[in-house]
Design brief:
By secondary structure, the chain is mostly beta strands. It contains 1 helix and 8 strands. The protein is globular and about 40 Å long.
């Protein structure tokens, strides 16, 4: 079992327990920690969330819990599947609008709130 080291900052902003699970990050990107991921329907692999995609990755369903270097090959990584986090510390994709960010994780156990 993997242990996730919790950062000493305002990342976890709620009382929800952080839950992680293994997932395959598709090759082609070096993904920073705290990056929203979508799941490609055809492969089941996770890629950086793309709100304008039509392959399943338009819905954010996981967050990276650490940097995942999948630049040259698929990587199995521990991904966040639940918790409440500071939206200001998320590595949102460039160009994601405020409205897209608000709707990114709707229907998942991942939520966001600013620190108290």
């Amino acid at each position: 079992m993997s242990t996730l080291q919790q950062p000493v900052d305002n990342w976890n902003t709620g009382s929800d327990q952080i839950q992680t699970t293994l997932g395959t990050v598709a090759s082609g990107a070096n993904v920073p920690d705290r990056t929203p991921l979508g799941q490609v329907t055809a492969t089941g692999k996770f890629v950086v969330w793309n709100p304008t995609a039509t392959d399943g990755s338009e819905k954010a369903v996981r967050l990276t819990s650490y940097q995942v270097n999948a630049a040259s090959a698929d990587v199995v990584a521990q991904l966040v599947k639940a918790g409440t986090f500071n939206p200001e510390l998320v590595n949102w994709p460039v160009g994601a609008t405020a409205v897209q960010k608000l709707g990114a994780f709707v229907g998942t156990p991942i939520s966001f709130q600013l620190p108290a």
